[in-house]
Amino acid sequence: MIELVSGTNRADSNTLKITKLIQAKYAAQGVTTGLIDLAQLPVSAFSPTAYAQKPAELTAVLDRILKADGVHVVVPEYNGSFPGALKLFIDLLKFPESFEQRCVCYTGIAAGQWGALRAVEQLQLVFSYRNALNSPSRVFIPLIGGKLSPEGTLNDAAIDALLVKQAKEFSAFVERNKGLANKG
Questions:
Q1: Do 8 and 40 form a contact (C-beta atoms < 8 A)?
Q2: What residues have CB less than 8 Å from 181, skipping those under 6 apart?
Q3: Which of 43, 97, 99, 142 could form a disulfide with 184, with the two C-beta atoms 3.0–4.6 Å apart?
Q4: pTM score, two decimals?
């Protein structure tokens, strides 16, 4: 099972649209996935007390990461980095078992020309600290505004092909490393 994380809590985001497109790529390959949309996190997740005492309505979402064989993060670039909501989500996950030897893959999107390269590289550092197995297969989608319709259709065949390839490669990476993660 691969959990996809739409890495922003912005409503109706391009990130969520791309995440759903990627989920369809996995489905076409027969890979089971789940989708965690940070826009759907309960308000209680943003309480200062959530660090010490996880809100009950958040526990099920956090447990999904623990049960996943792999996590595919779709991350937008905000102000040269990744969104604070994504960092908060990562911080709320159990330490160290949430990412200990768990496979992680990244797709970056950005309005600018670098396709969230900085955001992905920064996330790789965070996940490396958490002892995740970072997949070498990364996709960067620059100038997202011109590549995605309001309905969520991708109009760039080259990027679409990269997403299909990434889903295949990450699925294989997860299969090779299955069982290494401590599934708390």
A1: no
A2: 69, 99, 100, 101, 102, 103
A3: 97
A4: 0.94
